[in-house]
Design brief:
Elements (H helix, E strand, L loop, with lengths): L1 H43 L5 E2 L9 H13 L2 H12 L3 E6 L2 E6 L2 H10 L4 E2 L2 H11 L8 H11 L5 H4 L2 H12 L9 E2 H18 L13 H23 L1 H4 L4 H30 L11 H6 L5 H32 L1 H12 L8 H6 L1 H13 L5 E6 L3 E7 L5 E5 L4 E5 H4 L3 H4 L33 H18 E6 L7 E3 L3 E3 L4 E6 L1
Parallel strand pairs: 1-2, 3-9
Antiparallel strand pairs: 2-3, 4-6, 5-13, 6-9, 7-8, 10-13, 11-12
Helix pairs in contact: 5-10, 8-9, 8-20, 9-14, 10-12, 12-14, 14-17, 14-20
The structure holds protoporphyrin IX containing FE and 2-acetamido-2-deoxy-beta-D-glucopyranose (2 copies).
The site of protoporphyrin IX containing FE (HEM) has 21 residues, from helix 14 and helix 20.
């Protein structure tokens, strides 16, 4: 018994010693960290960033609950903009479920994260966690060396002559136009635009279109793929916002959708790899064929899984975005006959033929309209990065917001392009007006960022602008007027990107 007691007290002495050591360790660690942070702060002249005056100063539940509500009703990004205006600054910190994050709508800071200090920032772990189960390891879901390899692999295949395959666009756009009623009854153009971009992107990527616009009952497979893709992306966007909370919600439909998507793409990848081995034996046969992204990737010798991942990454990045741009453009055209008439005059001047790539490049007013739509409604309204080391951002500190700020390793920085694009000090007092003419004199730089900037700039920009231009021209050749058939105020539907919540319900009057 005595021995046992002695043992016990020995053990508790051990625990005590351990505990004391641990406290000393923590004190040393924290002071070293404090010293390191302080020297960065001194060296760069960092000043404190403005903080949001939360009603719940521990978890920031006030913003979290308000945001959850706005996700369901729309008006989310306007409310984010109001928070900036209320604080009267373009960079501030807030709490996200107890963690401090930084928000910025400052071109200088965004340029630092995306370009000049690119190596200090990565994608937040949350984005990778949410996307990798479906999209695997591809250009859109990785960082560092892995991302560099993807980027180098994919980029050459986005050169101009590949994407400007006018005949492919023509095929899908004319199928879409045949769905627009000629008797002026109401149509939701947004639905058609989402079908268009799915059909054309799958044709470009897989070599075979989902053909949802063909209304072909035999293509049940393509239609199912479209539905599964819509469901899976909506669900993932929820998860990027809720983080781990979403993982615990069981969802069989999500699992089924992901399986269906994988099987569908796998099927095409296998066919392409098989074809490759055949064409090696009989060269010359495939020479005159149109450009298929998948077949180019198959030539590289990458694994089936890798190719499948990259294809899905590009489909994710390219499909909803272009449909969103077209939807917003036609929302504005239906409400602004002055802009519509001016744009149509430019289209009609070219005649009724299919426009060429050069024709489209030469259409100034069309480009003003596309840029102005992307300014007012940047399809990726907000984005984020994650500091992978202790670093700084050039502005946002001190009472005037002009000093640099300190950014601790592990801090998430959100940048709201939507808010930046509506800054009156950058675009003028009329910043909230849709006004294509402003582009006559604008020379965009880091304050206009619909496609991101720096090493991770969108590789599909040309593809998107060509497809949107082509579709717009063909619609305006076929119809001479467009009327809004929906008087609700414009709010956004939030997916991974954004689009008008109530669709684009209009009537079109044939030419
Ligand atoms: C109006 C249409 C589009 C908009 C507004 C847009 C916008 C963007 C933005 C903001 C990013 C940066 C995302 C980030 O780094 O967090 C991005 C990346 C990307 N986009 Fe687009 N995009 C559009 C169309 C397309 C199309 C049509 C394709 C392909 C066919 C495409 C392929 C990609 C890819 C692969 C990336 C990832 C690049 C990388 O991380 O290196 N995009 N896009
Ligand atoms: C497409 O990319 C692959 C891999 O980078 C490359 O081998 C191939 O030559 C490219 N094809 C074209 C037409 O650019
Ligand atoms: C539209 O914006 C792009 C940047 O995304 C820019 O390169 C282009 O010059 C702009 N077009 C016009 C007509 O200003």
């Amino acid at each position: 018994m005595a021995i046992l007691l002695q043992d016990l007290s020995l053990t508790s002495k051990g625990i005590l010693a351990f505990f004391a050591l641990y406290i000393v360790y923590q004190i040393v660690r924290l002071s070293a960290q404090f010293y390191r942070h302080n020297s960065i702060i001194k060296k760069n002249g960092c000043k404190p960033v403005a903080t949001y005056p939360h009603r719940d100063p521990i978890f920031g539940l006030d913003i979290f609950l308000e945001n959850s509500k706005l996700t369901k009703t729309g008006g989310f990004w306007d409310r984010v903009r109001e928070r900036y205006l209320a604080l009267d600054c373009w960079t501030f910190s807030q709490l996200l479920l107890g963690t401090r994050v930084i928000n910025t709508a400052e071109p200088e800071n965004i340029k630092a994260m995306l370009a000049t200090q690119f190596k200090d920032f990565e994608l937040p772990p949350r984005r990778k966690e949410a996307l990798q189960p479906i999209f695997g390891h591809g250009i859109f879901t990785t960082d560092g060396k892995e991302w560099e390899a993807s980027r180098a692999l994919l980029r050459p295949n986005f050169s101009r002559n590949q994407i400007a395959d006018i005949e492919t666009f023509e095929h899908h756009v004319s199928a879409m136009i045949s769905w627009i009623p000629k008797d002026e009854t109401t149509v939701d153009l947004q639905e058609l635009f989402f079908m268009l971009t799915l059909d054309s992107a799958t044709e470009f990527l897989f070599g075979k279109s989902t053909s949802v616009l063909e209304g072909d009952v035999t293509n049940e497979e393509g239609v199912k793929f479209g539905e599964a893709f819509n469901y899976a992306t909506a669900r993932m966007s929820l998860q990027t916002r809720l983080g781990k909370l979403a993982v615990i919600l069981p969802d069989k439909k999500f699992k089924d959708s992901v399986n269906l998507i994988h099987e569908y793409v796998q099927n095409y990848v296998q066919k392409a790899l098989h074809k490759k081995s055949l064409t090696l034996e009989t060269p010359g046969e495939a020479n005159s064929r149109r450009y298929v992204f998948l077949e180019e990737l198959a030539k590289t010798g990458y694994s089936e899984k890798k190719i499948q991942d990259e294809l899905l990454n590009i489909l994710l990045a390219g499909r909803d975005t272009t449909a969103g741009l077209l939807s917003y453009l036609f929302h504005y055209l239906a409400r602004r006959p002055d802009v519509f008439d001016k744009l149509r005059a430019e289209v009609v001047a070219l005649g009724n033929d299919q426009p060429t790539f050069e024709d489209m490049k030469g259409m100034k007013y069309l480009q003003y309209c596309l840029n102005e739509t992307l300014r007012m409604q940047p399809i990726v309204p907000s984005n984020f990065r994650f500091a992978i080391k202790d670093t700084t951002l050039p502005v946002g500190g001190g009472p005037d917001g002009k000093s640099p700020i300190f950014v601790k390793a592990g801090t998430q920085v959100n940048y709201q392009v939507y808010v930046m694009h509506r800054r009156k000090d950058l675009y003028g007092e009329d910043a909230l007006e849709f006004k294509p003419e402003r582009w006559e004199n604008l020379r965009p730089s880091w304050h206009f960022l619909p496609f991101n900037g720096g090493p991770r700039i969108c590789i599909g920009q040309q593809f998107a602008l060509t497809e949107a231009s082509y579709a717009t021209i063909r619609i305006l050749q076929a119809f001479k007027r467009i009327e809004p058939r929906d008087s609700s105020i414009l709010t956004e539907a939030m997916t991974l990107t954004m689009a008008p919540r109530n669709g684009v319900k209009v009537g079109l009057i044939p030419a």
